[in-house]
Design brief:
Chains A, B: One of its GO terms (molecular function) is transcription cis-regulatory region binding. Two copies of one chain form a homodimer. Chain A is an alpha/beta fold. Chain A has three domains: 65 residues, 434 Repressor (Amino-terminal Domain) (Orthogonal Bundle), CATH 1.10.260.40; 125 residues, Response regulator (Rossmann fold), CATH 3.40.50; 132 residues, Rossmann fold, CATH 3.40.50.2300. In chain A, strand 8, helix 12 and strand 9 form a beta-alpha-beta unit. At the A-B interface, helix 5, helix 6, strand 2, helix 7 and helix 12 of A face helix 5, helix 6, strand 2, helix 7 and helix 12 of B.
């Protein structure tokens, strides 16, 4: 038995071994290696002697393996623009910080191939766990994460019975609630502006919410005009113009999120249409923008901060190996503001 | 000489050694280790045989050390909220992706201690280089990064002759240009809403820009009312109310950024003040919000996308060891929109 093995069952000495040998905490050993200037000289010397004696290799990988945890959580959000995810992620980060974890964020530009690449990069960089947005992705990715023992939590979308834990809201039900309100006001000519549905389960569920209410009320869902376009103010404007230039323009344009809705509002102004007198416009998310624009935007309020905070707690519990929590369904609610009114005439 | 050393001068076998031994590219070796399912079985077997034979240890740290680069760039921005940095960082990420690098972002909530922690976390996670915002930080941090050979680029603030390379604009000159315009219109009672200046060089330079123009025009800079508050729509509103409830309220409120300005506009509406007839309001940044609010916001346009794109190119050049580029000064320009008019009366 060589010297190292006296301190550990493993042949590679760990941070804990160094700490025990130098009679300090593992935090002190970490500090000596990462920020030696923060440790008094006497302690530093003792720790470095232990490092040498045990042959502990303070390279990044060895450190991560030794401590097992890196106290780093990764999150991949579809975009950093337009503040769609900003408030939730900021709350997520604040709570992680409170719990002693650092957050690293990547943005996939709504591209599955980029998300895949970023998941692998975050795992290679030692992320203890990942937060991902929405359920739609190659099952192979979940296998990849499971093989490596990296817990994952899906946010921004609750799915009952999904194999992967999730925290979020029911996009379909939330949008259906708004659609009920719209149709209660008498609207029968509906237009929808949505992000592409094929790869985005949140977008798809929101459209379904509208369609199901329309069908229930005797409208032909096929007769509802729908434009798909990536989320941006500019795209929202173009899509709105497209809908309004139809032979029978809609009396209400239901937008998949607030960013599209704000673009639609801007275009309405440019086209000389009054909102809501000439046409109603609704959003989804209730980002800060929604209350700031004039007229203020009727939308679905998503509890972003609450979601971010709870997501942090769940993920940290996962990292610490606590029993897995149930998926969490959060409630959304309608914010009836100025852009929704009865149809014209 | 043992078998390993036949393949390398170093005693630890590298990714390159494995690639040479298996007669494949290093990318193929990486792929075998990270995503074995993406490599045909024959190649995979050959690579794994080489891994075993050479005793190559495909753990994360060893991998990072072997390849020397991780193709990961870290960025620490002060906040993810309000889309202040969103557009620039999105462009930064898109360009990095084009160049084959992955971006990991952290947000420091404008707190130097958190930034410090995140810098260390990103370095520990193997970031090849870092993008930091603004110049104000403990010089010790630059030493820490230099010791570890991690290149750093400061963005959002150009500083001539600074020891650290930077890309950005001259915050002072940009704000001075706006102040000239404001005073040309006849304003003599100025109010300023700024982020805390003590730890934020961008905020400080913007205030200086206003003060210097005011002094040049014969105003007593001490007589200019100034409120410091963290960037948020809500805080902008409170600060605006504070300024307008003074005995001699300003005829123009110059805000340190668009987020504060939008808050000021909202509060003006609540207080029954017309903008710009009763009071003018200006911003800084020209985030998407600025053109969307009504009335549209007069502000300083910052070339966020251009800055992000160029920052990516400079940092990647640094990582690749190309000769260091000069710091880059970008031009800003005024966007004279609806919220700035002549003073009342």
């Amino acid at each position: 038995m060589n010297r190292k093995q006296k301190h550990s069952e493993r042949s590679v000495p760990t941070l804990e071994d160094v700490a025990r040998h130098a009679d300090v905490s593992t935090a002190t050993v970490s500090r000596c290696l990462n920020s030696p200037d923060r440790v008094i000289e006497k302690t530093r010397k003792r720790v470095l002697a232990a490092v040498r004696e045990l042959g502990y290799s303070p390279n990044f990988g060895a450190r991560a393996l030794a401590a097992k945890r890196t106290n780093t959580i990764g999150a991949i959000i579809p975009t950093m623009e337009n503040a769609i995810f900003a408030r939730g992620i900021q709350a997520f980060q604040e709570e992680l910080h409170r719990l002693g974890f650092t957050l690293l964020v990547s943005s996939s530009s709504y591209r599955p191939d980029l998300e895949d690449e970023q998941i692998r990069a975050l795992v290679a960089r030692g992320a203890d766990a990942l937060l991902l947005i929405g359920h739609h992705r190659d099952p192979e990715i979940y296998r990849f994460l499971e093989d490596r023992g990296v817990p994952v939590l899906v946010a921004w979308a609750y799915q009952k019975g999904a194999a992967v834990a999730s925290i979020g809201f029911d996009n379909r039900r939330a949008m259906a609630e708004l659609a009920e309100k719209v149709m209660d006001l008498g609207h029968r000519k509906l237009g929808i502006i949505s992000a592409g549905q094929a790869l985005n389960d949140r977008a798809r569920d929101r459209v379904r919410g509208v369609m199901e209410v329309a069908a229930k009320r005797g409208l032909d869902p096929q007769a509802i005009a729908l434009v798909e376009t990536p989320y941006s103010i500019e795209n929202g404007g173009h899509a709105f113009r497209q809908l309004m230039e139809q032979e029978e323009p809609p009396t209400v344009v239901i937008c998949g999120n607030d960013v599209l809705a704000v673009g639609a509002m801007q275009m309405a102004r440019q086209m000389g249409l009054r909102v809501p007198q000439d046409v109603s416009i609704t959003g989804f998310d209730d980002i800060e923008l929604a209350a700031v624009v004039a007229p203020s935007l009727t939308t679905v309020h998503v509890p972003h901060r609450d979601m971010g905070r709870q997501a942090a707690q769940i993920l940290v519990d996962m990292v610490l190996g606590k029993p897995l929590a149930q998926s969490v369904l959060l409630e959304t609610d309608l914010r009836l503001r100025e852009t929704l009114g009865p149809p014209k005439g």
